[in-house]
């Protein structure tokens, strides 16, 4: 609609310009015609003065009449009333006088040729307001009017012509072409705008995908820092203890510690492998995962912390629970974060009172897991923001554990919720639909 309006305005403006130019041209042409007409009539009238000067008593009236049929009468005495009057005696006739004599001129006869060939709508020759010769209707409503007095002392006639523009002769084809021209210009401009917009969108998309790649890399880097922190701390602690035991000649006691170090190192290597895979693609290989065994493995990984906090860990996952189609390391990371948080939340609990329990149940189309603990539970703010990156209430916490956990759960089309259970401790509920397992 807007384009149509623009086209209309441009066409009207440039079409108007063309019309004005064409009208001006017509006016100039007709002005030139008027000047020629004026000049010819002046010359023709001047002839009368010459004839009057040459006529004498000896001239033969018949010959004069024959040569100049528009001289109706002539006489050697000035016509009454005396000169220099021009007498509009009868319609279209007038006397011109000189001391030698007078002539009665028949103006229509004199100018018959001009009148026949002139193309103005209205043509008139008048003397002192009285028309002597007129052709065409009164031109009062006509567009253009030219008027000039003949510069002859004996015949000061006034020549007036009027005319209208020749509408049929305006450059209509050119105006149609102008309209077409603007339509083509607007069409191509539109196309140009459209491709430019598409190019911009494509550029933006490329930019965004680059940004989201950087974003994903940032997420991965943050995840790496978070997930590698615990196993590295554990390895450091195992190795230092092992060193001490070996120094005390108790090498046999150091062996299980070194085993635990190896397990943690393997975990680091597995984590690094998944991070590397993630950098290449977002797809993860799903396989049947025995949740009960993964939980037990995580309990081993966090053995140090569990022991130190004297936390009772209860595994209520039934043996009969069907395997979950998932990435084993993903599930391990989820359990690791939940268990680690539960342990950390219970550091102020009286010795021996801390506990963490995992329960699992199977419904028609999903597996529901709950991880509960005997800690103080989540604060009101934590309940709202626990899954937000960088939300933490711990002094040395990064606030990434639960954000990462939520991402991992969502990758399996699952959901996770945080609440506090009746005893006051935290309760995380995870639901994994079977639908994704068919994938
Ligand atoms: N079991 C829990 N009991 C009480 N509060 C919890 C529990 N789990 C999480 N929270 C609260 O949620 C916050 C966010 O947990 P999240 O694991 O994301 O970060 P963090 O443990 O503080 O740091 P990190 O990134 O090192 O894990 C914790 O700081 C804590 O306040
Ligand atoms: Mg945490």
Descriptive overview:
This protein has helices spanning 2-54, 61-67, 107-110, 112-117, 172-247, 251-280, 291-301, 303-309, 328-345, 380-385, 401-411, and strands at 71-75, 93-98, 101-106, 122-127, 130-135, 144-149, 158-163, 287-289, 312-316, 324-326, 355-362, 366-373, 415-420, 426-433. It has 439 residues and is of the alpha+beta class. The chain has 3 domains: 2-169, no CATH class; 204-283, Helix Hairpins, CATH 1.10.287; 284-439, 2-Layer Sandwich (Heat Shock Protein 90), CATH 3.30.565.10. The chain has a 5-stranded mixed β-sheet, with helices on one face. A hairpin with a 3-residue loop joins strand 11 and strand 12 (366-373). The protein is rod-shaped, with a radius of gyration of 57 Å. The model has no long low-confidence stretch (mean pLDDT 88). The structure holds adenosine-5'-triphosphate and magnesium ion (MG). The site of magnesium ion (MG) has 5 residues, from helix 9.
């Amino acid at each position: 609609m807007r384009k149509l309006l623009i086209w209309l305005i441009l066409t009207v403006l440039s079409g108007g310009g063309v019309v004005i130019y064409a009208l001006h041209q017509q006016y100039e042409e007709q002005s030139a015609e008027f000047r020629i007409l004026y000049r010819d009539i002046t010359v023709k009238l001047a002839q009368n003065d010459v004839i009057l000067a040459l006529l004498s008593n000896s001239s033969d009236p018949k010959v004069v009449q024959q040569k100049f049929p528009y001289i109706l009468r002539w006489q050697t005495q000035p016509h009454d009333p005396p000169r220099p009057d021009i007498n509009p005696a009868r319609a279209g006739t007038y006397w011109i006088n000189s001391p030698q004599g007078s002539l009665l001129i028949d103006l229509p006869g004199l100018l018959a040729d001009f009148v026949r060939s002139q193309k103005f709508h209205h043509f008139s020759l008048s003397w002192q307001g009285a028309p002597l010769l007129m052709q065409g209707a009164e031109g009062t409503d006509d567009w253009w009017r030219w008027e000039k007095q003949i510069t002859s002392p004996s015949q000061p006639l006034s020549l007036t012509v009027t005319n209208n523009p020749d509408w049929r002769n305006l450059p209509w084809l050119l105006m149609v072409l102008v309209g077409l021209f603007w339509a083509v210009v607007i069409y191509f401009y539109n196309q140009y705008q459209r491709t430019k917009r598409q190019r911009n969108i494509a550029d933006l998309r490329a930019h965004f995908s680059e940004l989201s790649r950087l974003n994903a890399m940032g997420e991965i880097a943050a995840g790496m820092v978070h997930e590698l922190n615990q196993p590295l701390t554990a390895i450091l602690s195992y190795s230092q203890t092992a060193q001490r035991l070996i120094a005390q000649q108790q090498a046999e006691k150091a062996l299980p510690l070194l085993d635990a170090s190896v397990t943690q190192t393997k975990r680091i290597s597995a984590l690094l492998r998944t991070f590397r895979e993630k950098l290449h693609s977002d797809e993860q290989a799903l396989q049947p995962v025995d949740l009960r065994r993964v939980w037990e493995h995580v309990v081993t990984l966090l053995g140090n912390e569990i022991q130190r906090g004297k936390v009772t860990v209860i595994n209520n996952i039934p043996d009969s629970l069907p395997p979950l189609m998932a990435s084993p390391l993903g599930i391990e990371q989820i359990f690791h974060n939940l268990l680690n948080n539960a342990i950390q939340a219970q550091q102020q609990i009286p010795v021996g009172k801390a506990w963490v329990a995992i329960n699992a149940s199977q419904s028609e189309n999903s597996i529901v897991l709950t991880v509960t603990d005997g800690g103080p539970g989540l604060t009101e703010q934590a309940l709202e923001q626990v899954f937000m990156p960088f939300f933490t209430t711990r002094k040395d916490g990064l606030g990434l554990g639960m954000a990462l956990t939520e991402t991992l759960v969502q990758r399996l089309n699952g959901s996770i919720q945080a609440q506090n259970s009746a005893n006051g401790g935290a309760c995380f509920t995870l639901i994994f639909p079977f639908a994704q397992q068919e994938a």
